[in-house]
């Protein structure tokens, strides 16, 4: 099964996958806010996978996709405050920017990690690029490289690595997304929760075109790699370790 990742998510997974490959001893992974399970399908092939997704519609599709593989489980709820177990990796892709208290939530996520385990997350880059699509899906903010690094430091994490992704294709994709969603963009707190809940379903590709997206995005995934250490990108992927 080829997961129906959007073109931007395909660019993101090129970075995520290579970071995961470096964690050779990791066997278990918790994903926070797994949406419709496109990433979950890829992650469950390699890890003992558990996801949390509070949106009922997205949860149902994510669980069906995992059931078709016979691997992984998703819970239809917000991540509990008290860990029921600890994982080698805690992942959250395009989630932190939806949370008003990003620092408090990140500290909670760290509690689900075993000592020596890793947080792996992605967020949109550059606050000056905050636009209609950010508003339409309920974002509070975008992040600078320095700001994201400080956030991870404040959570007590070490060995922080932050890679940029999305150059150059991501800029065209983001421009298109802004144009498609600008009529849905509403300023203010009213409706933000609903917009966040629906964000995992917004502009998601159908499963049937997943192989086409994968092929078309592949050269751009390679093209972005030399710019990982720069600020040329539309998003960040970060990895950091919980001290033993």
Describe the structure.
It is a single chain. With 244 residues, this protein is of the alpha/beta class. It has nine helices and seven strands, in the order αβαβαββαβααβαααβ. Helix 2 links the parallel strand 1 and strand 2 (48-52). Helix 1 packs across helix 9 (210-224) and helix 2 (38-44) packs parallel to helix 3 (56-69). The longest helix is centred in the first third of the chain and has 15 residues, at 7-21. The mean pLDDT is 94.
Helix fraction by DSSP (H/I, runs of at least 4) = 25-40%
Query: What composes the largest sheet?
Result: 7 strands, mixed
Count up the helices: 9
Number of strands: 7
β content, as a range? Answer: 15-25%
Structural class: alpha/beta
Strand arrangement, largest sheet?
3-2-1-4-5-7-6
Q: Give the termini distance in whole angstroms.
A: 37 Å
Quick check: average pLDDT?
Answer: 94
SSE series: HEHEHEEHEHHEHHHE
**What's the shape?**
globular
Give Rg in angstroms. Answer: 17 Å
Regions with little confidence, pLDDT below 50 for 5+ residues: none
